[in-house]
Amino acid sequence: MRIMVQKQGATKCGLAEVLLLLAVLLIGRGTCTYHYGYNPCEEEEALSRGNPVIRSKQVCGRPTALNRNVGGEDSVAGEWPWQVSLMKMGKHVCGGALISNDWIVTAAHCFQQNSSPSQFNVLLGANKLENSWPHKLSIGVGEIFRNPRYAGEATSGDIALVRLAQPVRFTDYIIPICLPAANVHFPPGMKCWVTGWGDISEGQDLPAPKKLQKLQVPIIDTQTCRRLYSIDTGDNMPPKSIQDDMMCAGYAEGMRDTCKGDSGGPLMCRMNKVWLLAGIVSWGEGCAERNRPGVYIRLTSYQGWIRWHIPDMEFIQPSQGHIKVKNIGAGRTDGMGPTFFVTALLLAVWTLNRILA
Ligand code: ARG
To answer: Number of structural domains, the chain?
Structure first.
């Protein structure tokens, strides 16, 4: 009789525990939902592992918005969420591209040899430079790394890495762009895009409120570009040379090009639904002149150097489709992480134990 009572009690208790377990299961499932194309649980987890760069691979290159930059057109807020403005003493000096939650790529010529990070800040999430907009974020510069190859105007190595003073949280307006793996080829004729707040013709500022401009530019192969730059060179002027770490894009007829103030900004190409950073606005002879297309620094030439500064940076092979979340550390897809499973297992064992007692 006593045993019976105990068994009954145990059974009731077991039911309650099963219900509790179910509740935990349901709550556990509900805690992580996708926002801005990323999972906040992954973010928390990555941050707690001290390894936030890994997550960029799952987020990068996919804006959530719809869908001197001479001859360009207005872009809309959120269209190029990795575009940043590098500001010196609060004034726009160059463009740049967000590549993780605390790194920016820009041009080396945006900085003097020993520029102090304290003079600079980075503006993120902006479309119009001159308006107040709740999604704008200004962050200090922690460190500046100019590529040591850079030796002045129109030379190789016009690339710099800037570490933000603090990591940023991604939003609809702040998303990194993907970096291409070293073997990704951007074929001549491929239609890519450049963006910037630079001049709209030589010496002419972008008018207020300074909406980010976008321009579609086809990739020009290096042979053709060298030939173009050798046309009509001044008598005592050697033609500017296109180095192997440079890539031309734009139009032989001129009219449309990047210009002063666009430097450091992204030349980007969409492959397999993902935007890749193909180049960095570097130089050109004048702006939008005939036979003088824009010259960009090739990102693929600097994978080793970027890895050296950011060891866990991901480089994307667009053919593989980078969106697969599996194999990326402990990244979970819907809140059912290892901690959760261990807790559930322990609870289940304990409940069974009580039922069978
Ligand atoms: N070097 C210029 C800057 O500092 C812009 C270079 C682009 N020029 C060109 N013609 N595409 O902003």
So the answer is: 2
Mutation test of ligand 1: which of 259, 290, 296 has the most ligand atoms closer than 8 Å to its C-beta? 259
Same domain, 184 and 253: yes
- The CA 295 to ligand 1 mean position distance, Å, reads 8
Q: What are phi and psi of 17, to 5 degrees?
A: -70, -40
**What is the residue-averaged pLDDT of the chain?**
83
Residue 31 domain boundaries: 2-55+330-356
Q: Lowest mean pLDDT: which of 28-42, 171-185, 209-223, 325-339?
A: 325-339
pTM of the model: 0.77
Average pLDDT for residues 60-87, to the nearest whole number?
A: 88
| Cα dihedral sign, 37-42-44-49 | negative
Query: What Rg value do the Cα atoms of the chain yield, rounded?
Result: 26
What does the pLDDT look like over 169-200, one tens digit per residue?
Answer: 999 999 999 999 999 999 999 999 999 999 99
Let me know whether 285 and 340 are in one domain: no
Q: Ligand 1 centroid vs 226 CA: distance in angstroms?
A: 17
The residue type of 221 is D
DSSP-derived secondary structure letter, 237: -
Q: Which of 56, 263, 282, 301 is catalytic?
A: 263
On whether residue 207 sits in a domain, the answer given is yes
| 142 burial level (CB within 10 Å; 0-12, 13-18, 19+) | middle
Which pair of tokens denotes residue 70? 């001479």
Whole-angstrom Cα distance, residue 249 to residue 293? Answer: 6
Six-digit token pair at 320?
């593989």
Residue 335: both structure tokens together: 């809140």
Q: For residue 157, which amino acid is it? A: G
Cα angle for residues 183, 185, 186 (degrees, 5° grid): 150
Q: Do residues 40 and 144 share a domain?
A: no
Q: Which residue has the higher pLDDT, 335 or 294?
A: 294
Q: Does residue 172 sit in the same domain as residue 279?
A: yes
Peptide bond into 209 cis (omega under 30): yes
Q: For 270, what's the count of Cα atoms within 13 Å in the CB-facing half-sphere?
A: 10
Same-domain check for residues 199 and 342: no
Q: Where are the beta strands (DSSP E) in 12-125?
A: 73-74, 83-88, 91-98, 103-106, 120-124
